[in-house]
Amino acid sequence: MKLGRQMPLNALRVFEAVARLMSFTRAGEELGMTQTAVSYQVKLLEGVLGELLFRRLPRRIELTEAGERLMPKVSEAFVLLEEAMAAARTAADEQLVINTTATFATHWLARRIGNFQLGAPHIAVRLITDTTPMDFSRDPGDVAIRFGKGNWPGLVAHHVMDLDFAPMLSPSLLDWVKPLDGPRDLLKCKIIDPGDPWWRLWFDAAGVPDADLEGRQRNLFGSQALEASSAIAGHGVAILTPAFYREELASGRLIMPFDLVCSDESAYWLVYPESRRSQPKIRAFRDWMLRDIERNPP
Asked: Which residues contact 213 (CB under 8 A, 6 or more apart)?
């Protein structure tokens, strides 16, 4: 007996209720259907199978031999489906997928996420790093850490940290290029990604509006983390966010030769769709993150 490519799941669901309750009327009440609709679904299934499933007797019904064979298998199948749905819901509730930049993940989130998991041991965390803002309707992720102005339609946005920047270089490069009498002297060094708009903003603020950046070779590393690694290796001067490199600055692996720190008024934000604001795992992560930032400002 071949059922074809489409399994009549709705008809099977109705059959299971009728066979369990031995009543078309009570099955309709349980399923929110009229008795006529219940009878139609059963007849539809009987037509697909080519077998009668119920004997219609005065004041009662009973299963035919075909119905007796079908009932336990259908009942077992729906139990398995309910268990699979419950397991899928549990897995979704127990895993929090965070989409963020590699730099924020490496220099802030990865260093603190263990504290969140200590307070919420039932939630597993998965980090996805990407350089482009995620599309919640298409990309995997429950929440995202993105940078910008915080005005994204349809998204709840919580301020995490301001995004400022300043030039940094290694001690070895500083020894090679000395003296650095002023910001203009940085142009004697290789600039890591001179096309980064932060460089133009910083040089303008430093009183060097004519900095020759356009003719220089660009290195597109795609993240601050990689640019910082290149700077630590002595390959050039990178423009970085000081809050991310406190340890490197404190240890002397990176040096900030000038005190001038600039900002383009961008910031990091925790964002998620309005429709997800009540999900327990998102509430737990949001509350932990905002509380942690308040206690330990970046």
From this structure: 191, 194, 195, 199, 200, 203
| CATH code for the structural domain at 164-265 | 3.40.190.10
Please tell me if the domain spanning 9-89 has the same topology as the one spanning 93-149+272-295: no
pLDDT digits (tens, 9 = 90+) for 121-174: 889 999 998 878 888 888 888 999 998 988 899 899 999 999 999 999 999 999
Whether 128 and 202 have beta carbons less than 8 Å apart is answered as: no
Distances (CA, A) of 168 to 36, 59, 222, 267: 77, 88, 17, 20
Indicate the domain borders of the chain: 9-89, 93-149+272-295, 164-265
Q: Which residue has the tokens 């850490």?
A: 145
What CATH number labels 9-89? Answer: 1.10.10.10
Tell me the pLDDT band of 3, cut-offs 50, 70 and 90.
very low
Q: How far is CA 171 from CA 27, 129, 203, 243, 251, in A?
A: 79, 30, 21, 19, 11
Q: Which of 34-38, 132-136, 192-196 has the lowest mean pLDDT?
A: 132-136
Q: Which residues pair with 165 in a beta bridge?
A: 262
Length of the chain, please? 298
pTM higher than the cut 0.85: no
Distance of CA 197 to the CA centre of its chain: 27
The H-or-E segment that residue 129 falls in is strand 124-129
The tens digit of pLDDT for each residue in 199-217 reads: 999 999 999 999 999 878 8
CATH topology of domain 93-149+272-295: D-Maltodextrin-Binding Protein; domain 2 (3.40.190)
Contacts 24+ apart (CB under 8 A), 186-190: 186/237, 186/257, 187/211, 187/212, 189/236, 189/237, 190/216, 190/235, 190/236, 190/237
Measuring CA to CA, how many Å separate 266 from each of 104, 117, 151? 14, 29, 11
Angle between helix 65-94 and 280-295 (nearest 10): 10
